[in-house]
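Onboarding guide, step 5: your first structure request.
Type a short instruction followed by the sequence, for example:

Predict the 3D structure of this protein.
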Amino acid sequence: MVDAKKTESENDNTSPIRVLIIDNDKHHAQAMSEILERVGYDCIQATSGPEGAIKIDQHNYDVVITDLMMNDIDGMQVLSRAKESLPNCEVIMVTGHGTIPKAVEAMQKGAFTFIEKPIHADGLRAATEKAADAVRLRQTNLDLHKRLDEKFGFDRIIYTSTEMQAVIDRLKRIAPTEARVLITGQNGTGKELVAQAIHQNSPRKKKRFVAVNFAALSEHLLESELFGHIRGAYTDASTDRVGRFEYVDGGTLFLDEVGDMPMPTQIKLLRVLESGEITRVGENKHFKVNVRVLSATNRDLEQAVAAGTFREDLYHRLKVVTIALPRLAERRDDIVPLLDQFRKEFSKQYGKSIKSVSPEVIKRLFAYDWPGNIRQLRNFVETMVVLDTDDLLDIDDLPPELAEVEMAVENSAQSGPWDLIGQSMEQIECWAIKETLKLANGNREEAARLLKIGARTLYRKIKEYELN
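The system replies with C-alpha cells like these:
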C-alpha cells in the first residue's frame, strides 16, 4: 500500500487540491463532491469508514472531509489514520447538532474544523478553502526550506581546493552545535554565505536567519536595531520597535563586520551574550531570548583588542569557534568551478546561451590577484556575460582589469600553472618534469621519486622533450 502512494506525484501549489469525502450516505457524499467540484476541487468519494481508511493508506490527499458518526470506522478513527498516513493534510469533520462536543474533541486532536448538518454549499466551500490555504502555506514553507537546503547546503558550496575542503570539514562539525562562531576573512570571501550554511545545517534551520551589518549602520541606530525601543525612547521613536534579537528568537543572528562595532554597543552586546536577556531602549523590562550568534569580520580583532578598540571579553565570547576563509588567490583551484557556476547563473538571468570560456580567459583569471575575492570574480563574469555576442566568453569580453592582466602575462618571462590551461598533455607533462627537476636541483633519481615514475621512464622523457 505504501508503494502505491509513492507512485503518485506530490502536489505543488499549482495543482488542484485533492479532497477525499467519506460519508456512509452515498447521496450526501455525492452532493458534497458536486459542490466542491464546481469550484475546481478534485474530489474522491468513499461511502464507508473502512473504504475511506483504505484510500487514505493508498493515495495522497490534501483535505479529508469525513462524517463523524459512521459504522465500523468512525470519524475519530479516520482522523487518527489521516494524521498518521497523511501528515500534511487537513481533516474537516461533518457533525450533527448532538455530536458537537465530539467534534470539538476532534479539533483538539488535530482536526482543522467542523461543519454542521445540514450542509450549505457556501459553508462547505469556505471551510474547504481555509483548509486548502493551510495546506498551500505549509507546502510553500516546505518548498522554501528545500530551496534553502539546496542553496546553502554544504554540498552546494562551490570548491575543489584542499583549502576549502578543510573549511567544509570544520563547518560540518560546528553546524549541529549551539557554539558561537567567528568567521574571519577578507571582503568578498563569502562570510555571510558560510553563516547561512551553518544556520541551514543546524537544528535552528526552520527558524529565522537575520543579518546585521555594523559597518552599514550609524552608532545612533545600532542599539535600537539590535534590541528594539519603545515609543518615546528618543525624538523619532513614534512607535514601539522590535529589535533583531527579539525578532529572531529561536533562530540565528549573524553580526557582520563586528570589528566596526562602537564601544557602547560592545558593552551592551556583551551583557546580552552573558545573560541571554535584552532590554529595549527606553524600557526597564527584560526579555529572555534564545538566539545563536554568528559573527564575522575582515579585521584582525586581536590587534583591535591590543589597541583598546575592541573588548577582550567580548572577543572571547564571540569566538568560541573560529572559521578562517582563505582569499581566492589562495584557493585558485576553485576559480574554474566558480566561473562555471556564475556563467550558468548569468546566462540564465540575461537570456543567453553561453556554453564555454576560452583558455585565454581562464589563463588571465589564474594570473589575477583577486583583491575583491569571489565577489569580484562574480562581478567580472556578469560583465563578460552582458558584453558577450558570440556565446563564448573570450578576451574581447574581458573587463578592463583583466585586460591589463593580459598585457602583463604576455610581457612576463615568468610562467606558472595557469599557462598550461588549454595546452596539450605533452606540454603539461614537459612542464611538470622541468619544474620537478628544478625542485630536485637536477637530481634525476629524486625527480623520478617525486613524480612517482621510474628513473628509466624519466630519462626517456627528458630525451624526448629535449630537456638536457
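Each response can be followed by summary notes, for example: The chain has 20 helices and 16 strands.
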